[in-house]
Predict the 3D structure of the following.
Amino acid sequence: MWGWALLPILLAICGTVGFWVVYAMSVANGSVNVTVMFPYISTCGSDPPQSCIFGQVLNMGAFLVILISYLRFQQVRDWGCPCALNTAGLCLGLLCALGASVVGNFQQSNQLETHLFGAFLAFVVGVVYFWVQAALTKRVKPHPGGRWIGPTRFCLSAGSTALLVAMFALHGLGLRSEAAACEWTLALILFLLFGLFAVDFRHIESCSVGLQHRAPPPALELGATSTQTLAL
């Protein structure tokens, strides 16, 4: 069923298009000057009106990441891999979503420390999340997404790690334009990695969330008499 596969595709397309729309708006209204320095993503989304779109794109993206992370967790568990690594992947995905929301709601021009913390969760934790997913893809047998999905996910995770390290190194050396280019490329690769979940999700027929009720205490079972009284 391709309905669930549309979620990661929607995230990848809307996130990518949204970021470039924010970039185009910031260049058009003079918020950034690309002739002086190629801007970071957050720099493009700091000033209104593009900051409104930037925040909305990231909030919607965070919501989709939560759904995708939960679906992926349930899928891997149903494939017979109820391991701690799968649970860790769910937690990392939720933290990545939280980071994206924080980045969108706390612009760097207003709350720099909070914004950087959100960026750490979105980028660093996001990269670790996909390393976990690459390991889970190798562990699950057989490979419902095809044999190519594992190596592809591994290569993209390795590339995102290299870009993350390069971004920090170049920023520390004062090469801000080069560091910003690494950040943009890293963000696009992360969107692509999320989009690849469409290959796995096309095997999902349905998804439901149920509540498990606790068994009643022995004293309150059918036929038992309660000795508790209510003081008035």
